[in-house]
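Suppose you are handed only these lines of text.
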Amino acid sequence: MINSAQLDGIALVVGSGRGIGKEVALSLAEAGAKAVVFADMNEEWAKASSEESAKYASSKDYQTSVFVMNVEDAKSVEDMVSFVIERYGRLDYCVNAAGVDNGVHAPLADTDIENFDRVMSINARGNFLCVRAEAAAMRKQTPKTWTSRNGTRDIGRGVIINIASANSFAGLPGKGSYTISKHASMGITKMAGLDHSPDGIRVNAVCPTWVRTPMLEEELQKNPEVQGMISAAVPIKRAAECEEVSDVVAFLCSPAASYINGASLLIDAAITTTLRLF
Ligand SMILES: NC(=O)c1ccc[n+]([C@@H]2O[C@H](COP(=O)([O-])OP(=O)(O)OC[C@H]3O[C@@H](n4cnc5c(N)ncnc54)[C@H](O)[C@@H]3O)[C@@H](O)[C@H]2O)c1
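From them, the structure of the protein bound to nicotinamide-adenine-dinucleotide can be written out as follows.
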């Protein structure tokens, strides 16, 4: 039987200083990754998360390092991938979690253009730059196989997971820039999954609704009405815990998910099945 605690490769988590990215990195370490690289623009947060990961890692030779970068800068993204390959020799699991919120909610006609550009530059272009560099490195490495009770199968050269959003599927009034950027992230996931399937690279997205992270705390300060939306609209009446996202990412990285590609998996407690959110 395969479970998501059967990872044995090298992981890179972009945006792992705090929040979902940090928890994903801890889950991958717990699931057996041999090394986890913590990439973030905030060095202090990335260092603290990297140190904490050693507490949970299950590989006896576990290694961890930090790379300070900015997803808005193509060279910084390429240097990050080169760093992983030079240090660890390959790149098996990449998770792209760096992202920013919309800021104050406003109807589309009142959207601040500078804010729109910033959100798109980080959440959409930044996601694209990461996937582009990661896939370019992965396609050069040798594919892996997995042996189970029914024989041996090819599980490919690597896995990329984008942290998209329930807003990749549906809008939220006043959250235009973010929703548009997260639709782009789903497009990147589909295209990269399609184009790089022949290279043995799987690219998927997880699409959570509200998750209890520092970003959500900041959003609640700017838009207090969001607390009411969570209680009224989420069928289980609460935001997700980070682990309820990070453990799904570990599954998607595992051999159990070797036929899942180009998919955007909702983690939304059925919120998007409703016709009206509030
Ligand atoms: N929290 C939620 O409710 C929620 C819901 C759905 C999707 N998401 C998505 O999950 C991802 C993570 O969100 P979070 O809530 O954990 O956020 P967060 O703000 O808690 O953490 C984001 C991390 O990304 C880093 N980062 C931000 N911009 C960066 C850049 N330009 N370059 C490098 N690193 C950068 C930050 O330093 C931070 O460590 C985002 O893409 C977000 O859109 C969050």
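What can we learn from it? The mean pLDDT is 95. The chain is about 40% helix and 20% strand.
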